[in-house]
Amino acid sequence: MRDLTAVKAALRQQQIELPSWAFGNTGTRFKVFGQPGVPRTPWEKTEDAAQVHRFTGVAPSMAVHIPWDRVDDYAALRRHAGDHGITIGTVNANVFQDDDYKLGSVCNPDPRVREKAVAHLLDCVDVMDATGSRDLKLWFADGTNYPGQDDIRARQDRLAQALATVYARLAADQRMLLEYKLFEPSFYSTDVPDWGTSLLHCLALGPQAEVVVDTGHHAPGTNIEFIVAMLLRAGRLGGFDFNSRFYADDDLMVGAADPFQLFRIMHEVIRADALKAAAGVAFMLDQCHNIEPKIPAQIRSVMNVQEATAKALLIEPDVLATAQQAGDVLAANAAMMDAYNTDVRPLLAELREEAGLDPDPVTAYRGSGYAEKIVAERVGGTPASWGT
Length: 388
Ligand code: LRH
Ligand code: MN
Description:
By secondary structure, the chain is an alpha/beta fold. It has 14 helices and ten strands. About 45% of the residues are buried. 6-deoxy-beta-L-fructofuranose (LRH) binds near residues 21, 92, 139 and 249.
């Protein structure tokens, strides 16, 4: 049996960043459902994110999305987060919601539109300077819907040029994280569709450019843990967007659709000694709680990542390596499955109690009265959502 002291020590170091947009109203093209008590401002989103950290102890930062989280004074937002025990983390740029970006943003054939998009990306670096954020996260909806609509190679040249302009603006301690996605909203070609394309651009830019893997951004059947292992081996896994899906980019709670996949991914992270924050992988949730209450869903999601991580930490490396070396397929697989089939909830409950936290964070949150408080207080104003 693995030394549980070491397992607990590794779990205590785990940090999972929360997405501000998960606290706002979200949905699909069919409907965005409103919920009572939803935050109206980035200030209130920060307060809700702080609740998740209060009850889990491992969610000390909130990612922001610009302009969804635009404020007049980002330094004040940083202080506000600090007053609530968390920090402002990754800054996500948004060049996918303006009419000008119909044919793309940084890959658009129109240089005026590309200039506008690059200006926004540079503004986001200014935000990072004010919030003290290390990472600029770039996801581009850019692509085409019909063969011949645009020149695939020319679009890559435009992308490379835009990224180089922004890369040159980064401070020495700042990074650019390039997220790929197979399709949607483009349905023929996407300009950054896979890890290879993202990695090629990152390698061309320099050491401060790394790849973001998002669970929901792959073709069905993709071995995501293989991609994670390869990017960690190359030292270019900059971030991981946790969520889960049954079909496409469903953005469901991480571990809800495929907890075994999450376990296999965390095994590769641990295998590469990349769980600790010092390893530089920005682990974050990237989810939308279209029908479920948002704060408890974020708490549950953090717990799902902890459970998958704890199970992966229980894999006995020597037993596994010996079986692998010996070509003992069944013993090697059993070493993984024994860990996966271990109930780690008592271990995590103990870990929380040792940290002075309630062993059951969801129940503790439900009993805290916070949900009732925000429903009572947040009357009037415009609930946050993807639009604003
Ligand atoms: C794109 C994405 C990206 C975010 C957005 C909210 O699908 O995963 O990480 O900008 O969701
Ligand atoms: Mn994402």
